[in-house]
Design brief:
Layout (H helix, E strand, L loop, with lengths): L7 E2 L5 H32 L4 H8 L2 E4 L4 E4 H26 L6 H28 L15 H11 L5 H25 L6 H19 L5 H18 L4 H10 L12 H25 L6 H9 L1 H29 L2 E2 L5 H10 L4 H11 L3 H28 L1 H12 L39
Parallel strand pairs: 1-4
Antiparallel strand pairs: 2-3
Helix pairs in contact: 1-5, 1-6, 1-10, 3-6, 3-9, 3-10, 4-6, 4-12, 7-8, 7-9, 8-9, 11-12, 11-15, 12-13, 12-15, 13-15, 14-15
Length: 449
């Protein structure tokens, strides 16, 4: 009896999955550059002679007081615009669960275990640092998230040529991270719960689900309902971004025969550019404006809470993801792609220590006090920058290998629209070889929704 072949880890990504990942990452990369520019602008503005104008604009309130929606500009960007970001994240998570890396337990095991370890270890290191230093352990969730847009912006600036498998693995890590972050926000950062408003939000989500199951089309049904769900969720005491993830998970990812695209694909196509280029950069503009004076930077390394954030992002993320991936590969007997090395996984683990957007959001929720919150925000910036620099050093050293693999993956000598590597016999992990291979989320023959 022949032995079963060992599964290949970080091997050739199936063509439809690679195409879907490429589309998602292309938008995230452009958005990441906007995000990077917004963060720099916020820091420059907040530390310039015009810092008072920055604070006045950030704290300017407007809205509808009768509906409990008179918020500051900062809160509108955090509770409003970031809902769009989490809506897109929910759609991406649904796609991964239905047709992506998370569909099959065997392929989902490695990225899920890696992501869970990449959340648990930073939280544990933060808690240990804060406890030893006599600080608050309330910020344990701050260093848990990965900012995929910022990470891709770093890769774009470095001009690296990561193979598709590494990019897909990074995206899957970030998707699981986003789910973990929203669950943490919903469970641990909910206060003054309004059960009537929460019941109304849940009823709205049931109506949203019913419209999807009944195949009701037309934005005029969903936009007012979505806004109502968001407003009710905000007034319930649960963070409003939870509404975005919930609606993203409800949207259908499989199109009907008479549809050009599934509802999830249409919404993602419309909102992903807005989320990446407008919503998240605006949030960064009003969340990243912290003092970078000597005393503020000194507090990052002398106060237990911000120090725990830096250690969690830089050391915790790296150790958690790398150790989780290595142990999961050993447990599942997965064989690392012979063209890659564990140093590549280590570099990717360091890159995941960039926790900018969601880390800033959780920092605001965990530390409502102005002084500690500013120091924690500064720690998020310092930790993310340190992780980016360390990852850059390691990944740049391997860029010659990445460039060779990238060129092999994209070589198309017969100009038929399909890379030649997908048309060779005997390659494991190869996908459809037709140049018109459909987006897997558009497969109307699938029973999944």
């Amino acid at each position: 009896m022949t032995a079963r072949p060992r599964p290949l880890f970080l091997g050739l990504v199936p063509l439809p999955e690679r195409q879907a990942v490429a589309r998602a990452l292309r938008t995230e990369t452009v958005g990441g550059l906007f995000l990077l520019a917004s963060a720099v602008a916020a820091l420059v503005w907040a530390n310039s002679p015009w810092s008072a104008a920055y604070e006045q604009l950030r704290d300017l309130h407007f809205g509808i007081p009768a509906l409990g929606l008179e918020l500051s500009v900062e809160h509108w960007t955090a509770d409003g615009l970031l809902t769009v970001f989490f809506l897109v994240a929910g759609i991406e998570l649904k796609r991964e669960l239905v047709v992506g890396e998370l569909r099959a337990p065997a392929t989902a095991a490695l990225p899920v275990i890696a992501a869970l370890c990449g959340m648990a270890v930073p939280a544990a290191l933060y808690a240990a640092t804060a406890t030893v230093g006599g600080g608050s352990t309330g910020g344990w969730a701050v260093p848990m998230a990965t900012d995929i847009a910022f990470a891709l912006a770093v890769l774009a600036v470095l001009s690296t040529h990561l193979p598709a498998a590494l990019r897909a693995f990074l995206l899957t890590l970030a998707v699981v991270d986003d789910l973990g972050a929203i669950l943490i926000i919903a469970v641990f950062f909910t206060s003054d719960l309004n059960l009537w408003a929460l019941a109304g939000a849940c009823a709205g989500l049931v109506a949203f689900y019913s419209l999807q199951r009944l195949r009701v089309r037309g934005w005029w049904w969903y936009v007012p309902l979505g806004v109502a769900i968001w407003a009710l969720m905000y007034n319930s005491g649960v963070h409003a971004t939870v509404a975005g993830v919930a609606m993203g998970l409800i949207l259908r990812t499989i199109r009907e025969r008479d549809e050009k695209a599934s509802p999830a694909s249409l919404v993602a196509h419309l909102l992903h550019p807005f989320s990446a280029a407008v919503a998240v950069p605006l949030f960064a503009l009003f969340a990243a404006g912290v003092s970078i004076s000597g005393s503020a930077l000194g507090a990052v390394f002398t106060s237990p809470e911000p120090l725990g954030v830096v250690i969690g992002l830089v050391l915790g993320k790296t150790l958690g993801i790398f150790a989780g991936t290595y142990l999961a590969a050993r447990f599942t007997r997965a064989q690392l792609n012979p063209d890659l090395a564990w140093a590549d996984v280590l570099g990717l683990s360091m890159l995941a220590g960039i926790g900018f957007t969601v880390a800033l959001l959780i920092g605001e929720l965990a530390f409502p006090g102005a002084a500690v919150q500013e120091h924690v925000k500064a720690a998020v910036l310092v930790g993310s920058l340190t992780a980016a620099l360390l990852a850059a050093l390691l990944l740049r050293r391997r860029n010659a290998v990445y460039r060779r693999l990238y060129e092999q993956e994209n070589l198309d000598e017969d100009a038929d629209g399909v890379p030649d590597i997908y048309q060779r016999d005997g390659l494991s992990g190869s996908g459809p070889t037709s140049p018109t291979a459909a987006d897997p989320t558009e497969n109307h023959d699938s029973p999944r929704g």
